[in-house]
User: What shape does this take?
Amino acid sequence: MNDDHVIVAQATPPGVAGVSIVRLSGPDSKIKKMIPLLSNLSVSAVKPRMASFAYFYDQLKNKIDEGLLLYFEGPNSYTGESVLELQGHGGVIVPRLIIEACIYHGCRQAEPGEFSLRAVLNDKMTTLKAEAICGLIHADNEAQARAALRSMRGDFSEKIANIEKRIKHFRVMLESAIDFDGEDINPNTSLSELVIICEEIEKLYHQTQEAVSVNHDQHVCLLGPPNAGKSSWLNRLMKDDVAIVNSEAGTTRDLIEKRLLIKNRWVQITDTAGIRETKNTIELEGVKRAKAKIDSVDLVVWVVDVNDLSDLDTLSKDLPKSLITDLKRMLILWNKKDQHKVIQKDLNWRSHSVHCVSSFDEYDVRLVLDLISKKIIQPTSDAFYARQRHLDILIKINHLACEVLSHSQEKYDVVWVAEVMREIQLELDKLVGLFSTDDLLGEIFGSFCIGK
Ligand SMILES: Nc1nc2c(ncn2[C@@H]2O[C@H](COP(=O)(O)OP(=O)(O)OP(=O)(O)O)[C@@H](O)[C@H]2O)c(=O)[nH]1
Ligand SMILES: [Mg+2]
Assistant: This one.
């Protein structure tokens, strides 16, 4: 996968800006050759890690910009190879001309993530750290950025390394027992060590699940009978007039999806058609889509009208039982409380707290935002950055651990336990990016941006 081409890319986003940086990475002799081709400077005039003022040239040696030229001599650079950075004025044209000149002189446009990939291949960082850097670049809220920083600092790798150390130690114990025909092994000690390892794996699996979820939006839908005030609530939460509100029942038919940041968490909120029996084919389709949404969301905000004469048992007849019993996945609002001085409605229903609110009331808007944020998963203060790739591997590892543990409690087979531990260790190596195939590396770094 690694080649000795000099790669080049714009490291800053294209467009109008104060500064733009074009970055090159490759073998030292080739990088040095580029210095006088791209600028007015000779190689001897450039000192590693020192900024030099330079004029930049296009492929015909026309002066096109002026700025700073930086040379990092490998391995003391981001990629571990020699790196050249040309920092010129921002804009679309100048960086493009510089890159064209580089390609004219034999460089190759970098693939997405190729600078980071070279850094990993040159042992400048682990795959986990490179992935965390990618997470930091793509973070779109503070919680994600903090989690990525924790992974860059090594929190995730440290957790993996601790488990791996334990497994290695355990394997030595098992292997020697196998070699000496079980003489040295105490099955009870060995089983309790196995229990600890499996518990640690399970803990890491759950932490990784949480870490992956930090990078994804939470999904919330507004559900309830027609005219209860669902669209009014969407508008109030979004602080915008995004959905039509009308006193006529059956106003909303399509799903209306909006994105909102609630206390550090991106939430997709969907307004739905009021659920009722209807002969209108368009509304019927709306009701079908609303019901279909229930299973795929993390939280259902069930909006009911305090003026409704029915009780919650009757109103909930269209809701799946699994939702009603799930206290974490449902938030119930008696809406339009402003129309009553005294509200004689259930405020506790099947273990749910039911909240009386009005979409007209600013205080209630803040209350509902707070209630939603408490129901959806909030990243813990030590959450780290992880991707689906890591979770997929941990699902496999956790499955292996659960299997070996449940069988071992009935019959302890040292040879089999040793074999499974070896398999788990290989999977842990994949997790940190050791022994990765070219395909896997391509997949990991393909999701990076160009120039990183
Ligand atoms: N008094 C009062 N009226 C409200 C409140 N919330 C909404 N309404 C009114 O209730 C009516 C229906 O509101 P919508 O937001 O359109 O209700 P909906 O649940 O989206 O209705 P459908 O789309 O038909 O299912 C409108 O006239 C709103 O102004 C509230 O808190 N108090
Ligand atoms: Mg509506």
User: Anything to note?
Assistant: Residues 218-375 form a domain with the Rossmann fold fold (CATH 3.40.50.300). The first strand starts at residue 7 and ends at 10.
